[in-house]
Amino acid sequence: MASLAALGASSVPKIFATMEEGPIPGVINPGEAWLESHGRSLGHFVDGTWLKPPGRMSLECQEATTGRTVAVVPAGESSDLAMAVAAAAAAAKAWAGLGGPQRGQRLAWLASTLDGDSRRTMGALLTLAGGRPLCRTLGADLDLGLRLLRVPAGGAQLGPPGLEGWTPLGVVAVVLVGPCSLPALLWKLGPLLAMGNTALVLSPPAAAPPLLLLGELSGEGAALPPGVLNVLAGPPGLCQALRAHPEVTSVTFLGAPQEELQALVWGSPCRGPHLGGPRGGRVVVIVLDSADLDSAAAAIAATTATPLALFPWWGCIVLAQDTVVAALERRLRARLGLLRLGDPMDPKTEVGPLPPKILPPEEVVQEAQEEGAQVFQVPLPPLLERGHRFYPPTLISGVAPTSRCLREPAPGPLLVLLPVRGPTEAVAVASALPQTAAAAVWAQDITVALDTADRLPQGLVWLNALDLLDPSGGCAGGAADADLDEALREFGCPPWEQPLKVDEPLSPLVTVDDPGDPELAQAVAAARGAALWWGRLPGESRARVLRGASAVLDGAHGTPKDGDIGDTDESLQRALLRWAARVERVGGAVQEVPGGRALVTRRPLGVLGVAWGWPRPLALQLLLPALALGNCVVVVAPPGGVLAAQRLRKALVAAGLPGGALTLLPGNSRGSGSHLARQHPDGLWICGGDADCNWSSAVSVSRVWGVPVGVLGGPGQDPPLGAERELELRCTRPHCLWLTGGGP
């Protein structure tokens, strides 16, 4: 080494520090080349061909980095939407008639086409439209998107278990409102096409080019028949024209915050259309004192630079144990300082511009600084200082627990560091943070790490990792997280969906006022307090309570009271014993996933609101699974139909159920769904049209179900085949713990 230095040769570290990465293969940007092949004038993709209405005003498709116009699309109108809906409806019967194996095969062809020669084109278009660095759109994003398409395709080919007799919904609309990655779109398109539905995608002009390429690829090699996948570009209000088309039975919104979604939705949970859409949110990282700080800082900085594809641009919060917070902050500053900002089309770039229509988080950062927080920002390169679309990677430390940067998600490469005293406080803070999509725990002490991860409420938790996503491991975290089984069921119609004729009257008929908001708020608060204990009990302990309630009823030798035509004590005992046996058998699975293993289980929702509006006594088939699986329930129902439920509650409390775990409030059914939704329960079940509420009221609740009366069966009859499994899924949510290592 000394002789090399004497000769003036560079040292090995200096050589590695100054090495240049090679350019992307190819001379011409493949995305720009595809746009040039269409004359930079695109159309809508409808019924397997391009639709370019003459004389139509054009909308500009702008590059996310510079704002320059890269192409134009015709402004979609209601007439274009009517043509697309008609094409999708015409193709629906033939597509559903192909059967699962053939549909799965065609979806696999589409994935292979996307992974072939068009891969570089798709990656380049995604970078042009969204600003995500090319190294991600060509790599991890596209790989995840292909998995999200291939896994439902495999499920369709094999026949998803438990969905025998299910039929497609028909025409499903997917509306892109804000920034949306390709994996987020394919997480919806894959299951809905696998279930036999046809799709209509409405896109803003800025996001249209890669989606139009996807539509074009769907017709290559006859992957999908004409009309199965249709793509329209248009202004934000175009989705309102869907109201005039009853053929559209389900609408999924992507990229829309709640306040925008409330202004866009229509219909109701019971009357339709079906409404869905992932909510996303921030990632919470807990770093404990035994953690490998270098690997933790590297992963956190990488996630801050380019967020995960399913949770884009909502920041990251790090809860570090106070004994290591200073050391971690030094490492984070160093890692953030090494990030490469620049043109996202450059393969060396790690931090690109903000997505279109996303404002920089300057107000949040300035407010934190005024409160006394320390703000570290990476200087922007000289060429980017005037680029309003770029925001420097930012680290905020020393914030107050009530700071706005903790209360509200902020877009951009923003990182908030907060010290905690230990794992218990970290779990408490992570549980209280609003709008969190996933969590990670960094610790070398495996016992402490597993205990901490198990107590976190987020549906997706990584252990010593931050970038693992796969449909087999419940990849869509957040308040509305879903595994593959739920993703398929979202776009299917069960055999009991057709309502039965219900003519059983309530007796006695009593008219009372709906419970007021203070009374409902008190009931929900009591339920939340009870859920902290009841929801954490193992299944065996809850089964013991159910069997104890059955014994209480057996000792009471109850019979129906005058006017009570509901369940007898004997039928209640049978139901209690059946659900006690089921809850003891509830378990999980160990799933092989890329990068390790995933422990997939199901957890209770928490507080479940039930608005009863059918002209029959309150069905205990709804209450028992919710309680047995660890939820606490607040019911609003006319008083004449709750006598059996009152006997059940008395027996359960005598057997050990917390008093606030089941609350029965008398009230008129009309409007009770809206009243419950205002209290923000974790789940809301609407039973009957009289209890229905508008989607604009219910959209604040993460899981809303318009309960079909057929799922209960007739009076005195057992539920139909598969209904109890549906009830299990409706009152629980997936929880996935990723363990790194030991996998491919």
Short description:
The protein is α/β, with parallel strands linked by helices. 38% of the residues lie in helices and 18% in strands.
Polypeptide structure, described:
The chain is of the alpha/beta class and 744 residues long. 38% of the residues lie in helices and 18% in strands. It has a 10-stranded mixed beta sheet, sandwiched between helices. Strands 8-7-6-9-10 form a 5-stranded parallel beta sheet. A 5-stranded parallel beta sheet has the order 23-22-21-24-25, with helices on both faces. Helix 6 packs antiparallel against helix 10, helix 12 packs across helix 13 and helix 20 runs antiparallel to helix 21. The two termini are 39 Å apart.
List the helices and strands and how they pair.
Layout: H1 2-6, H2 12-18, H3 30-37, E1 44-46, E2 49-51, E3 58-62, E4 69-74, H4 78-97, H5 100-114, H6 119-130, H7 134-137, H8 140-158, E5 167-168, E6 171-176, H9 182-194, E7 198-203, H10 208-219, E8 229-233, E9 248-254, H11 258-264, E10 274-276, E11 282-287, H12 293-305, E12 316-321, H13 325-337, H14 362-370, E13 374-377, E14 394-397, H15 404-407, E15 414-420, H16 423-432, E16 436-442, H17 446-455, E17 460-463, H18 484-489, E18 492-493, H19 517-534, H20 539-556, H21 569-585, E19 589-593, E20 596-604, E21 607-612, H22 620-628, E22 632-637, H23 643-655, E23 662-666, H24 672-677, E24 683-687, H25 695-698, E25 703-706, H26 723-730, E26 732-740
Helix pairs in contact: 3-6, 5-8, 6-10, 8-9, 12-13, 16-17, 20-21, 20-23, 21-22
